[in-house]
């Protein structure tokens, strides 16, 4: 933004006067887009930018500062001004550096310059009346970024709210927006850039951004090409993003379902994206042995190579054949499919432990891979003396959850305690950490409140079991708990061991796991399936 001709003194005088009134003064070239030629300090103060920052993030295009929902009405306003000399006014919203939305009312006069270019000269002020009439009109916060259209969507500059939203370290020089987009949405967002470049119109849709610490944010994003070059990768784009509450609910539901899927058969859960042949660890329990980093995209070949490093030599070739990339890519082509392989892990000392890999196709573009250590009877990791059981204890997981001792039904009055017991029974002797239990029961990361609730829930469970003389069926070790499977009879165990069958009648069988069913969805379209469909088919 600079000055034209010898008008500096006039512009400065007008700008100072308007700034003192609390508004801003600006002049724009009207040539299709609204190009800032001069802006007073009042605009910078209102939005929180320095002048050079304001120009840098907008490339001088005023619409880059305008709320996406007001862009069309603002363009109509500037078109009226550009068609003939005259005056007009408009109310619209601007986006500040901190992401806040500000309502303004602008009054503009257009005139033809000696150079044959139509320009508008404007003054604008906060429109507090609009905010009072519609209190929620400024409730959103926006991320605004200037990016290149290359493969990685390199970030040139961004507002402060973008840094807060994505937890971006300002000390990092080279940032790519694609690294903050979930794998399922990257191809789609790339197509948005293609359309914005080809059509030179803003393109809007929803996607999910993930911060550097793994926190997901379901957003509506707008992509607009603000400086078109010969190639898309050299062109500059303005990207705006705001929270999409409906999409966020769907995403949180999907995360919740993933946790339930994880608890049902896996210590580590991976997402395989066929579009770019990558694997991402999306959930991990404390009992996992792989220590794969969460929410980091890794090439499938590298991930498989790392996994094979844990496999005992005699099973390496068999596991390699099971999870090679071409087989992963073909999984699910003919519809939903589940497959598994059991093998042994080996360490340098020659010790082995049984493990299972389960593959579940979610769609033609995505599959999930679950990795679980198998708890064997008499496993040295869970050492104990032989159990003497004076009671006949039966637990039912198919259908409604129930617990009985010597044929007498036991009523566990605390629903959370009942859910905790169901989770322990389902894990069949594997220890469940407090972190994993909290994620299942409250669907969140542990904090002071949920830890206190979990301790109270575990205490209530043990009191109920102790009241009926069977508290020995649950063991604890440094905060982790497990059921002692030798002490109970369970219909689910019988089915897994090939002893019993599925219950008949009353529709499709269900395994009751913490009173819920789960689903695996393609992106955010959820495909409902009973928990038995994923657990029982293994």
UniProtKB/TrEMBL annotation:
Superkingdom of the source species: Bacteria
PROSITE patterns linked to this entry: PAS
Pfam families, per database record: PAS_3 (PF08447)
Residue ranges of domain PAS in the record: 29-72
PANTHER family xref list: TRANSCRIPTIONAL REGULATOR REDD-RELATED
NCBIfam families reported for this sequence: sensory_box
Protein name according to UniProt: PAS fold protein
Organism of origin: Collinsella aerofaciens
Lineage per the UniProt record: Bacteria, Bacillati, Actinomycetota, Coriobacteriia, Coriobacteriales
């Amino acid at each position: 933004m600079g000055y034209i001709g010898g008008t500096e003194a006039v512009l400065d005088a007008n700008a100072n006067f308007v700034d003192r009134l609390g508004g801003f003064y600006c002049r724009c070239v009207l040539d299709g887009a609204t190009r800032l030629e001069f802006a007073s300090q009042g605009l910078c103060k209102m939005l929180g930018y320095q002048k050079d920052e304001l120009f840098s993030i907008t490339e001088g295009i005023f619409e880059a500062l305008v709320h996406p929902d007001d862009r069309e009405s603002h363009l109509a306003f500037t078109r009226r001004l550009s068609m003939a000399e005259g005056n007009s006014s408009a109310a619209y919203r601007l986006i500040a550096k901190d992401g806040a939305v500000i309502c303004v009312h602008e009054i503009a006069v257009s005139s033809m310059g000696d150079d044959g270019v139509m320009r508008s000269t404007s003054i604008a002020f906060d429109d507090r009346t609009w905010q009072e009439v519609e209190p929620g009109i400024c409730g959103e916060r926006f991320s605004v970024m200037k990016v290149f259209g290359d493969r990685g969507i390199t970030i040139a500059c961004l507002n402060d709210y973008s840094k807060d939203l994505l937890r971006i370290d300002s000390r990092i020089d080279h940032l790519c927006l694609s690294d903050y987009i979930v794998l399922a949405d990257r191809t789609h967002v790339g197509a948005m850039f293609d359309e914005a470049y080809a059509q030179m119109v803003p393109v809007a849709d929803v996607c999910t951004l993930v911060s550097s610490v793994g926190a997901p944010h379901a957003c509506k994003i707008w992509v607009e090409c603000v400086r078109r070059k010969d190639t898309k990768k050299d062109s500059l784009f303005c990207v705006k993003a705001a929270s999409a509450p409906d999409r966020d609910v769907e995403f949180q539901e999907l995360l919740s379902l993933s946790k339930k899927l994880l608890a049902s058969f896996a210590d580590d859960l991976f997402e395989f994206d066929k579009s770019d042949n990558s694997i991402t660890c999306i959930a991990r329990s404390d009992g996992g042995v792989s220590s794969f980093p969460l929410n980091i995209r890794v090439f499938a070949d590298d991930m498989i190579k790392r996994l094979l490093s844990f496999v005992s030599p005699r099973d390496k070739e068999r596991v390699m054949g099971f999870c090679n990339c071409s087989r992963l890519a073909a999984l699910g082509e003919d519809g939903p499919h589940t497959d598994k392989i059991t093998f042994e892990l080996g360490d340098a000392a020659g010790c082995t432990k049984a493990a299972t890999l389960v593959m579940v196709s979610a769609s033609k573009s995505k599959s999930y891979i679950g990795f679980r250590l198998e708890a064997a009877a008499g496993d040295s990791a869970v050492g104990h003396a032989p159990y003497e059981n004076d009671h006949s204890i039966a637990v039912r997981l198919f259908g409604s959850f129930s617990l009985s001792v010597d044929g007498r039904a036991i009523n566990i009055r605390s629903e959370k305690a009942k859910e905790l017991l169901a989770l322990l029974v389902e894990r069949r002797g594997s220890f469940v950490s407090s972190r994993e239990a909290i994620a299942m029961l409250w669907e969140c990361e542990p904090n002071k409140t949920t830890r206190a609730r979990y301790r109270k829930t575990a205490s209530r469970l043990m009191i109920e079991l102790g009241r009926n003389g069977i508290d020995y069926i649950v063991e604890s070790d440094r905060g982790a708990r497990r059921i002692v499977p030798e002490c109970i009879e369970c219909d689910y165990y019988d089915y897994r061991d090939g002893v019993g069958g599925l219950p008949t009648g009353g529709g499709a069988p269900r395994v009751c796991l913490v009173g819920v069913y789960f689903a695996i969805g393609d992106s955010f379209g959820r495909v409902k399936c009973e928990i038995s469909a994923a657990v029982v088919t293994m």
